[in-house]
Amino acid sequence: MATTNAKANSNSNTENGDLDPLWQDVDWAIGQTLIMGWDGTQVTPQIKSLIEDHHLGSIILTAKNLKSAQQTARLVQELQTIAKSAGHPQPLLIALDQENGGVNSLFDEDYVCQFPSAMGVAATGRAELAYEITKATATEISACGVNLMLGPVLDVLNNARYQPLGVRAIGDDPQEVSQYGLAALRGIRDAGMASCGKHFPSYGNLDFLGSNLDVPIITQTLEELSLSALVPFRNAVASGQLDAMLVGGCGISNPSMNVGHACLSDQVVDDLLRNELGFKGVAISECLEMEALSHDMGVQNGVVMAVEAGCDLVLLCRAYDVQLEAIMGLKLGYENGIVTKERILTSVRRVLKLKATCTSWSKALNPPGVSLLSQLHASHLTLSRRAYDDSITVMRDKEKLLPLSGSMHPGEELLLLTPLIKPLPASLMTKSLLAAKNNHSATPMNHEMWVHRGRDRGTIMSGEGAFREFGKNLARYRNEKLLHTSYTANGVRPVHENLINRASCIIIVTADANRNLYQAGFTKHVDMMCSMHRSRGNKKELIVVAVSSPYDFAMDKSIGTYICTFDFTESAMSALVRVLVGEIDPPRGSMPGTLRKSKKVLKSRQHWLVEEYDRSRDAKALNDLLMAVHRATAPDLEFLKTTSAASFTLNNPNIQESHFVVRNSSTQALYGFAATYFTGGVGILGAIFVDPGKRHVSIGRSLHRRALKSLGQQRGIKRVQIGLTFPGVFLGIPSNLELSTVSDWFSNSGWDTQFPRKLTNMVIKDLGNWAVPEGLLQSIQRASISFDLIHGLENADSVLHHVRGNANPEVLELYKYALAENKSCGIVRAKDPVGNLIGTVIISRQNSALITYIPSLLCHAEDVGGIIAPIVPSTPQSTLVLQGLALMGVRQCKSHKAPRALLSWVVDDASESLLAMGFELLQVFDEITNSPDICQN
């Protein structure tokens, strides 16, 4: 074993893969591949031994370890001192769950601020708030010595109503989850900490089988996952800001994959996470102390499988005997030749590189603790109150019951009915109850959330205490008496009936009513009683407040007044009081994800100032807007990465263009952009973008209205369309599943989207290995179809006549532009046996001038040859003509040494014959054409 001095002087150069000789000691190397925890608020002999004798390099802290900020800083400092004295070359990774809402491991009302849950932040509609909150939270726990935040949660709630993940997730919209997740990543990084996305590949749509020994299952196909659940993970990886990824312990069962535990599968970790998504950071397994895993294969086998699958840190939460078993398992795996030293050292390199980014001995041994926290606390409290005030969401208030001062007369009684639920870990109530009862069976860690389902019912505490302060606070604000009692699975009892008879307004609180069905039944029963009272002329108003999942009654329109708080911490309940009494008026929150899109919130009637685009003033801001849209959009719109402000400005005398912006005149930032064109009697909406952080507040509607008004004023307009070929940024509405809501948006804006023309971009990714399909050349020869290549406008009369008669006016201008670029572009002509022109296509060299206006030609790292706008009139031979034009195009691209070829603007079902040639689909668009009457709506 290396000496202590050698250990202390070790300095790993992780960039080039060179490792200090210390790491050749397998015991030391294995210690760096494990992350472990323990129970207790002090260092125990067991955790000390793991650090000293087994060289454990990473620690996970939980609520069971932490009493206060000051104690946490001292505890971490002690752990790091033990590691330093034991000769660890780099400090320990110290990881913590601090998601806010109901999941905070560290609670200290004097120094650590409470912020809304991830979904609560999304309800504010402001991604910049996610950045501020995450940075504040990360700064606070960093002050206590923590250097790895286990977050953000990047799961998409595909089956939101029934998933236990609930408000820990941002929502059910992949773009929105990406947007807020990326903002959170920036906040963590700017606080000087490392981040860990979770829970890959997704905890957002799990099937639960019922037993503790049954692992929940993902049943979606890889294609379905790719279109939704994987989008935020993919975008987080692409951002380069994600340091680690927690790989879940769920199973996967679909036609292409049958996995028992995701974190033990090389299909998930090495293939999907690393190879497909390109993740180069640290992969962390879910906790391997799960009953399901130990029952299936035993911890020793599980740890070996996790490392073999590609996990760099294997998580074992608290049981010392299981942790020793895991260490022995890795040693046996190495001795048996199952786990190679190089595999272990690969993980060591990744872990050491991560440590170098987020910690050092000077930081680790001297956490600033409460001295820094006391300086930050006032500003963080202000941020917390603002966030909670902006998150409370009134989804419906049909009877105008809010504020209560407007719907209740003095002396009328208000009844509060609350369920018996366990207080949140992040609350003063929980801390005091635990202290009073000396209860050592606190909330199980979220890493074992399904293992403990139904097992901790004996520790459930009365919800009356959690909501009592809310009731007192509400009564104090109203200066009126308030009746309050709880309800249970026993339903409506005589005590409830008596109180309902007395009250003129009833507030029912629910918490995950879709999974605690007694709450839904109780609420519906009370709603029916109130309706019966009203039918007899008695005043009985009902307000339902969902204090966890907003999906409890989101779709039940019979609940006329419905409010969502997204957690039931003291901070959330205080903000709820301010909404109920009218101190916050109007309430500013909105439902996250698809619920926000489906609801016409008050803000949707907002009108924004729309100005004409000024290139000198707005070009830089437009580039920033395009990048923001790209980061929040699906991977099949990768071409947005290479789209620039210049892409939309043609300066073509035959095409009139008018572009519009919604902007912040103070900061010069663009909130939205719309591009319109007019040529040959056709008015075209070529693009419309809205800043992802400013969606759902009518910016798009304002731009759309102005764009159509401008087009409607053009003399001689015959029709309007969405999408165009020149510039070819959007050929139409993207028709992939994930963006189907875009089509709905245009449909709701007055467009008839029922009969689109499908336009496709296709690609051959590897021209070097592409071969001409067997029999194609012979078929072309038998049909006596000939091809030639021309350059320049002087030879182009027949081509332009052909295009003018068979394509849209903007396609004609595209051909003229290509012919004018005679050095970098040419036209392949197809002719029948008597010399008649029967097809044309544009061929462009790599880096031709066309790439500015067709960004797909630049959306890959390597140069792309272009085969653009094939125009083939419908004849019995049109399929063969198209294939021949594509073949000639591919040959030209190969002769220009292009490694791949893009075929753009394939019309309707013609793509089928090109797929048979070896082309792959890249993007599919729906071009929409309507009469100009829409401009008058």
Task: Tell me about this structure.
By secondary structure, this protein is α/β, with parallel strands linked by helices. It folds into four domains: 33-371, TIM Barrel (Alpha-Beta Barrel), CATH 3.20.20.300; 393-421 and 460-587, Glycoside hydrolase family 3 C-terminal domain (Rossmann fold, 3-Layer(aba) Sandwich); 611-754, 3-Layer(aba) Sandwich (Aminopeptidase); 758-929, 3-Layer(aba) Sandwich (Aminopeptidase), CATH 3.40.630.30. The protein is built from 31 helices and 32 strands. Strands 20, 21, 22, 23, 24, 25, 26, 27, 28, 29, 30, 31 and 32 form a 13-stranded mixed beta sheet that branches. Helix 6 packs parallel to helix 7, helix 6 (127-143) runs antiparallel to helix 16 (370-391) and helix 12 (299-309) packs across helix 13 (320-335). 53% of the residues are buried.
Task: Detail the topology: elements first, then pairings.
Layout: H1 4-9, H2 26-31, E1 34-36, H3 45-52, E2 58-61, H4 69-85, E3 93-96, E4 98-100, E5 103-104, H5 118-123, H6 127-143, E6 148-149, H7 174-190, E7 194-200, E8 217-218, H8 222-227, H9 230-239, E9 244-247, E10 251-254, E11 257-259, H10 267-276, E12 282-285, H11 291-296, H12 299-309, E13 314-316, H13 320-335, H14 341-358, H15 361-364, H16 370-391, E14 393-397, H17 404-407, E15 414-419, H18 428-437, H19 463-478, E16 482-487, H20 494-502, E17 505-510, H21 517-535, E18 541-546, E19 561-564, H22 570-580, H23 593-598, E20 611-612, H24 615-631, E21 656-663, E22 670-679, E23 682-690, H25 699-712, E24 719-722, E25 733-734, H26 740-748, E26 757-764, H27 776-782, E27 786-790, H28 797-806, H29 809-820, E28 825-831, E29 837-844, E30 864-871, H30 878-895, E31 900-907, H31 911-915, E32 920-930
Parallel strand pairs: 1-2, 1-13, 2-3, 3-6, 6-7, 7-9, 8-10, 9-12, 15-16, 15-17, 17-18, 18-19, 23-24, 30-31
Antiparallel strand pairs: 4-5, 10-11, 14-19, 20-21, 21-22, 22-23, 24-32, 25-32, 26-31, 26-32, 27-28, 28-29, 29-30
